[in-house]
Amino acid sequence: MSNLPTTTGEVSEKPRLPLSLLNAATARFVCTYGRGCDGICCKNSTPPVDPEKQQQINSILPLVLPLLRPGASKLISDIGYIDPEEAHEGNPSIRVEDEWCVFFNKGCVLHQVGAEKGDSTLFKPVACYLFPIDHHSSGDWYIRQHGVDNEEWTELFCLAGTPDLPLAVSTLGFEMEMAAKQDDKIKLDAKTKAAEEEKSPG
Ligand code: SF4
Question: Is-contact 101 109, C-beta < 8 A?
Answer without folding.
Answer: no
